[in-house]
Structures are given as C-alpha cells and as structure tokens.
Amino acid sequence: MSAKKFYSLGLIGYPLEHSLSPKLHTAALADTNLDGEYKLYPIPADKYLEDRLSKILDEVKQGRIVGLNVTIPYKTTVITHLDGLTDTADQTGAVNTIFLDQNKLIGDNTDVSGFLKDLNNFFNSLPDESDPRCLEQRNALTLGSGGAARAVVYGLIRENWQVTLAARKVEKSNVIAHRVNQFLGGWAVKSIKLSVEEINSIQHPVHLLVNATSAGMWPDVNSSPWFNERDLPANALVYDLIYNPGVTRLVKLANQQNLYATSGLGMLVEQAALAFEKWTGKSPSTEFMRQSIEIEKRGSK
Ligand code: NAP
User: Fold this and answer.
1) Are 251 and 272 part of one and the same domain?
2) pTM for this structure?
C-alpha cells in the first residue's frame, strides 16, 4: 500500500506574523481529510533576498514543498524566478500562488477569482433592487494602485464593469489603466488622481466603490482612503478589501450613510480555497475555513 501523500504548503512574504493563512489552510486540510502542514517563510528584503527566493522555489521544484502562496512585497518580484504564468497572473502582473506543473514552476493569481466570488456573494445577499448585476452599464470606482488594485480592476473588467481607478500616485494608476486598455483594445479603465476634485468631476453614477488601498488596515485602523470633505457616492455599494479589522473605518462610514458595505474577509477565504484546490485538486468548505479565523464578522448595512 502506498504512503498517503503529505501536502507541505506555505507562504512567502514579509512580515508574516499576523497572517491568517496557516489557520485557513490547516482547516482546509482537515476538511478534505488530507495530511499536510502550512508553514510561514518570512523573507526580508535584504541582500540575501534573491538567494532565499531561489532556494525556497527549488524546494517546490524538487517536490519537497507542494505549493506556496506569495504575499506583500513579492507578488511581482517572484515572477522572474518562475517558468510560466497562468493567463490571470500574466494579465495582472502579480502572483499569489505557485505550483509545479510538469516539472515547471507556474505562478497563478487567485485574488482575481477570489474577489469576484466574494463580490457575487455580497450581491447575492442584497435585496433584488440593490443588485447592480441587472444594470446594463455598471460603473465602479476603485481606489489604489498596488497588486490588489490590479486584481480588482482585471476582475471587474472581466465582469463588464466600467472602471475608474483613483490613486494618490496617479502615475501608478495610469500604468495599470494603460496595461488593461491595451490588452483589451478599448477604454474600459480610466485613471484619475485620488482627490476630492477629481472624484467630484466623475459624470456618471458610481454603483460600486472598492477600496484596494491599505488605508485602514491594522494597526492603522483610524485611517480611511476616503475624504472628510465629501460623502461617499450616493447609493454606491462599498467593498473594502481589508479584512483586519473585520469592520474598517470605511465600512463604518458607509453604514453611517446607509450604504451596503462589506470587508475583504470573504475574499481572503475564497482566494485561499482556490489556491488549495490548485495544489490538492480538492475543494474545501469555505464556511469551515471561515470559522477557523476568529475575527470580527464582515460589516453589513
Ligand atoms: P500594496 O501593493 O502595498 O498597495 C497599497 C496601495 O495602497 C498603494 O496603491 C498605496 O498608495 C495605497 N495607499 C496606502 N495608504 C494610502 C492612503 N492613506 N491613501 C491612499 N492610498 C493609500 O498592497 P496590496 O497588495 O495592493 O494590498 C492592498 C490592501 O488590500 C491591503 O490592505 C491588503 O491586506 C488587502 N488585500 C486583501 C485581500 C483579501 O483577500 N481580502 C487580498 C489582497 C490584498 P502609494 O502607492 O501611493 O503608496
């Protein structure tokens, strides 16, 4: 009888001490009845970085590690160490999941589908009249210009949203918008500076506001990417990618203005479940995974 396969999984990034991924993946292993472990591999960005990345990725190549997640700040850096990318990772220019396929190290990005899955869960929880999926033209305003903003923009475009991308460094949002528009051969993404004046100049209704900045993330919980000088867009649904705290300052502000809002806890679980499926071929219960992380529940209206 052959020995049961052991799934050695893990996460590279820095710093990692507050990561919820070990709990999520340990729950996924238990739920799917697989043997394995999920370890943290913190790699500081010092002069040994390239060496350390090569060494840990060689562990995957040799089959001693079955799968790795990648987080801040290496979602882009890691790409030069890989043999190939899935279409989604290629289009977003960011990798959060690495696996071995026919002896080749492949990078994938499950943030895109994880975001879309949880966005649909959010829409499903709304009364019919507030569900934007029935609108012919859907407009989203996304804040930020890092790896998460890239994933969100690609996801929204895939679902036929028109996207305005606002960032405090407009040159960074210009790069994202240019890349997507070039790829699609159209003008689906418009880039603006994250300022009251530029937001006020938006001519169409905003149906969805997505925060893909890190403003408001623990420990900086009193921050928000929004402005004191103006309300959130009227009737907008608010999706904050931040999951720690479970109810961010932005989500609280949305609730005060009687808007439906959610934080990114659901996305965190969905992107983890999708990575787990890639490594093991098994679909864990996302509800069971969610229960493994003790965190204040997502916001609502
Ligand atoms: P990142 O690459 O470090 O980018 C952070 C972005 O936030 C940058 O565009 C930065 O602008 C902007 N920013 C920071 N503080 C700001 C402020 N006060 N006002 C306006 N913009 C501000 O990080 P990331 O990977 O994109 O992640 C962003 C957030 O999404 C993090 O909180 C992360 O935890 C969350 N996230 C959640 C999930 C999930 O599963 N729920 C998945 C991925 C990411 P500058 O370039 O000007 O500094």
Assistant:
1) no
2) 0.95
